[in-house]
Amino acid sequence: MQGVYFICFTLFGVTQTCSFLAPGSLLKIYLHRIKLRPLYNEGFGKVLMSQNHLNLVVVNNVPLFFNIRDGPYMPTLRPLHQYPDIMKKFQVDRSAIKFVLSRANIMCPGLTSPGGVLDDEVEEETPMAIMAEGKQHALAIGYTKMPAKDIRTINKGIGVDNMHYLNDGLWKMERLE
After folding, report:
1. How many helices (H) and strands (E) does the chain have?
2. What residues contact 60, with CB distance under 8 A and at least 6 apart?
3. pLDDT tens-digit series, residues 6-44
4. How many other C-beta atoms are found inside a 10 Å radius of the C-beta of residue 45?
């Protein structure tokens, strides 16, 4: 079965089912970009499922990727800080930082104001790294609620759903023991 990888899903030691990871999946693309290919070819880790629909890809007890429900797999902030070019980026202005760090979704005006930066090629439901004006590392990860062109023209409402941010529970979970 070349190109199809076997992954075990575990509900924290209680239930085990198994599934296949398709070769074209977003997770495979991220793994290839950050050069985890040797781990990846050996059945590199586990996908842990929790009761709140959060799935974690764990390698050596370190959560590297996550998804919520059936959404796209996204890297956690730790590997994103090590490999900042694996995701597309938006930048929020300085005034949005405290709201993003308190789990608020990213509003269109925070992306279109003078400190914000948009990539007009980004489509709806694209996983994004959220950068902050004047900061080096991403402060959050989310996915777009509308295309970047609409964010710029409509300039109202939620532009990006905040899925993971600095100092949330996933950030504090450095290792699973």
Report:
1. 7, 11
2. 45
3. 333 333 333 333 344 444 455 544 554 544 444 444 445
4. 21
Cα-based angle 150, 155, 158 (whole degrees, multiple of 5): 85
Tell me the whole-structure pTM to 2 decimals. 0.76
Q: Which fold has domain 81-169?
A: Sulfate adenylyltransferase (3.10.400)
Find out whether 131 and 89 touch, Cβ atoms under 8 Å: yes
Task: Describe the chain by its helix, strand, coil percentages, rounded to 5.
Answer: 25, 35, 40
pLDDT in tens, 66-78: 888 877 788 999 9
Reduced to 3 states (helix: H, G, I; strand: E, B; else coil), residue 155 is coil
Span(s) in the chain for CATH 3.10.400.20: 81-169
CA 10 and chain centroid, separation: 21
